[in-house]
Amino acid sequence: MTDFSKTRSLFHMPDGVIYLDGNSLGPLPVNAQQRVMETMKDQWGDMLIRGWNDGGWMQMPRRVGDRVGRLIGAPAGTVIMGDTLSIKVYQALASAIDLVTGQDGQRRVILSDSGNFPSDLYIAEGLIQSLDRGYELKVVAPEEVEAAIDETVAVTMLTEVDYRTGRLHDMKALTARAHAAGALTVWDLAHSAGAIPVDLAGAQADFAVGCTYKYLNGGPGAPAFIYVAPKWAEKARPALSGWMGHERPFAFDLTYRPGDGIERMRVGTPPILALAALDAALDAWEGVDMADVRAKSIALCDLFIAEVEARCPGLTLASPREGTRRGSQVSFRHGEGYAIMQALISRGVIGDFRAPDAIRFGFTPLYIDEQDVVQAVDVLEDIIANRLWDEPRFKQKALVT
Amino acid sequence: MTDFSKTRSLFHMPDGVIYLDGNSLGPLPVNAQQRVMETMKDQWGDMLIRGWNDGGWMQMPRRVGDRVGRLIGAPAGTVIMGDTLSIKVYQALASAIDLVTGQDGQRRVILSDSGNFPSDLYIAEGLIQSLDRGYELKVVAPEEVEAAIDETVAVTMLTEVDYRTGRLHDMKALTARAHAAGALTVWDLAHSAGAIPVDLAGAQADFAVGCTYKYLNGGPGAPAFIYVAPKWAEKARPALSGWMGHERPFAFDLTYRPGDGIERMRVGTPPILALAALDAALDAWEGVDMADVRAKSIALCDLFIAEVEARCPGLTLASPREGTRRGSQVSFRHGEGYAIMQALISRGVIGDFRAPDAIRFGFTPLYIDEQDVVQAVDVLEDIIANRLWDEPRFKQKALVT
């Protein structure tokens, strides 16, 4: 049984804050500062260039990737860290298109849905434009994805958990459907990794990508990850063929030869300080059973929905009511959602706002419990009942929402 | 006049080390630890998600980019930080190809040279293969570049300072030659930024990229930069069209619209801890005159060459003898170069080895002086005179050389 009082003690939380935005940026793990300091002082400072060998820096993307892999059902050696999620989407999509087009030149549809995170769609647009070979990004409603998978589809590019509503796609079923139609799959796990049990191998996913600054608490702009199924790892052509993905980076050959399997998805020099912070953050998952996390996450979300609906009139649930159909977050719609969220934040209840009208709350069992949920709704109830959001200062749009 | 005794005091240097590898990884600036700690504790820890607004995180790639820009002759608002150098090469090359092809569909040659850093060549190979439209990567000897620029060339992709020999290309002359032939230029400043005076605007360079972990001392895997000339900034199509380069990232539109000018070269969520370390490192350049740096760099390199040639038989100079034709590094060839370098490192004189036979020494006036040079040659002389390199432990190849 996972000891959530212990995991809670592993994170720094400012006084007076109830943090329901771990789905956007996870909080600081208390051991991360020390780890980054050691990496700076004992490794960068004292080892200098020797850190690449003696500090184990060169293997960090693979070693940390394996640690992430254990949380998403990926076998050792199938996940590697680096870059940002958008870059990883580009790599996965480019390789997937390449593999399918090699098999069937007629397939030209990249299928996604309107609940996907926009950056994934933007990256696909850019790639398609660069390729200039008649590929088409087809964006359907989330509930229409299954029916839209047909023989024209080269690749499905889907985010498992909808960033706005928390709606969950059935990865296994959609992957099977894609494979039956002859397509490959790219899964974005941004709101899945560390939030819900993921079984990439069991679902037979082809490619998967994700970020680590949300439920994995790696810090602002922490490195992303990419998974390539073993069946494709030696066949995938890396579109971003950087030296760290070369078979022998330090031979300095003039021509590219892809490295073994997942290694070819490395691009440039890995970000060691960021990897050190992430590596420390992943310690929090030792001894944690993802089934326990899922059960508590659903309980917290259910409690939040029940409390809000009982006490906060005017808010409309935007997330699936059924716990097993959600990720680890709940959203409500309200025409004054932006101002309501600013009022909440001013009272220490931190969630976020997603245009046009959703206020979004992430529930992260590692450091959030039932009492936090009830207290957060107490504040929300007060703000709604007394229209405390109706102040000019809460309506000024910030750069980042 | 730059006070180099002051700049020297800004870096942590382990006892007994003479560090001549700042061209590979700059040393730890003493203020960087504190800065990263504050970013972790006061911003990530206490501001949490609010750091994106209140901590100024969202503007960091631009603000830090401007600081780098001042060292490379780039006007404010033309440089932005992010990703790795290989990714930035991909972006610059893709955009440059796009711009030229729009003007002249017959140009199909990407011209580079065999002294370019291999990753740049690999990235070009991968891009060309993805584009699949008959582009060709033509790699000539460095001294043949000028003559090879003709009307078939779409883009020249050159590294100003050769990573192995330190040989310097004439950026201004080659850019003028490329423009006269109707081509665009991508300049890699990996071994230029912070090493020599660079005048991107004066040279009329079109695109430039570089890393910040060498002479800019940003730390292992520090973020890269990209420069786009103002004349192209609003015309360049970003191949890696991620959400941070969108005109309005937080509108979450389903279709991409490039941001203003250089902003469109942002891709994913910026690496805040790494940017904080780099930002601190850039403080060392306050009050530093790059002309002073250049004069001292040439003097240090000249002294090193003279001392080695006088005292270390069997080593052949692999760098240009003329100081103004070199970057801030000197290489010598020797058949046992690898073992010699390992023996040097074991005695605290840290340089590096570049296959097949070059031992490489970087001279960084911010923290290296004449006494270091003489002492380093004392050790090298002893190693050569007494064949101290001739031990099995010095011949075992490490992962990273």
TrEMBL record, chains A, B:
Record key words, sorted: Hydrolase, Pyridine nucleotide biosynthesis, Pyridoxal phosphate
Cofactor(s) listed: pyridoxal 5'-phosphate
Superkingdom of origin: Bacteria
Reactions catalysed, as given in the entry: 3-hydroxy-L-kynurenine + H2O = 3-hydroxyanthranilate + L-alanine + H(+); L-kynurenine + H2O = anthranilate + L-alanine + H(+)
Record-level Gene Ontology MF annotations: kynureninase activity
Subunit description: Homodimer.
Entry protein name: Kynureninase
UniProt-listed Enzyme Commission number(s): 3.7.1.3
Functional summary from the UniProt entry: Catalyzes the cleavage of L-kynurenine (L-Kyn) and L-3-hydroxykynurenine (L-3OHKyn) into anthranilic acid (AA) and 3-hydroxyanthranilic acid (3-OHAA), respectively.
Sites of N6-(pyridoxal phosphate)lysine modification: 214
Binding-site positions, pyridoxal 5'-phosphate: 85-86, 117-120, 159, 188, 191, 213, 243, 269
Pathway participation: Cofactor biosynthesis; NAD(+) biosynthesis; quinolinate from L-kynurenine: step 2/3; Amino-acid degradation; L-kynurenine degradation; L-alanine and anthranilate from L-kynurenine: step 1/1
